[in-house]
Amino acid sequence: MVLAVTFTFGISVKSALFFNGKVMNIFIFFLTLGGVCLLFVCGASAVDSDRVPVMEGDTVTLHTDVKINQQDRMVWYFGVSRIAEITGDQSKICEDAVCKERFRDRLKLDNQTGSLTIMNTNTTDSGLYKLKNTSRNTDNVFSVTVQGVSAAEQDDMKRKSVKEGESVTLDPGVVKNPNDVMRLCFNDILIAEITGDQSKICTDEQWFERLKLDHQTGSLTIMNTRITDSGEYKLKISSSRFSIMRSFTVTVSGEYHLFIQCMFPFILEYSSIFFGPLNEKVDRSLKTMPGLFIS
Asked: Residue 133: which of 121, 141, 122 has the closest Cα?
């Protein structure tokens, strides 16, 4: 881009020499050229935006990397609309009707750092988020892209149903960055973690030799599942600039058998004295019930 401008002004300089032949024109054109080039350099050094790819339904937090003091005034913008503000120990979120309609109580502001969290993201949340710290004269820009997925795709990825004894894999569904930190929690208890080229898995009695972690993709496989493995699993992918939270729901079903050994034979025998043929229907229906065994 700078080369194109230089080339254009180079022609103008030659034209000035050819038509006017005055040294002053040369000076003016080069002075103008220097100013334009300076503008391009300044433009190139403007605040770059961090790209934040998330999946619909995820929770994303945009980090500020600062600790707020009483003199700070921080304002978050979505496009040109102000959506959140912190001044000292006072914070405001979505004060106008448009913001409230768009985000519907899905924004959360950290009063200590100014970080902004967008919960249960949807495709309309895609766009530029800009943080202006007016007291420090700094800007942070985040380009958030929310990938839309159908309800069926969300169920397939985030809801897992298996039978007891089978294996289930929780796949992050993202390209793992070498600098990312990935943590997976079950009921808010950390069971697996990847930091750089290091990985850890929980080895307590509940999970002993049943967890397998793929260091390349970050996916976690639970082998020989138990009913007690049912519940919510939360994956957090963190970088220096943002973090993404994704939830998985795992349901492990077992086979339940009801054994009736003493009471029902007595009841059936006793009822036959009074009800006669009715007992045959009851007896037949009970014996044909799946999972019900009468000895």
From this structure: 141
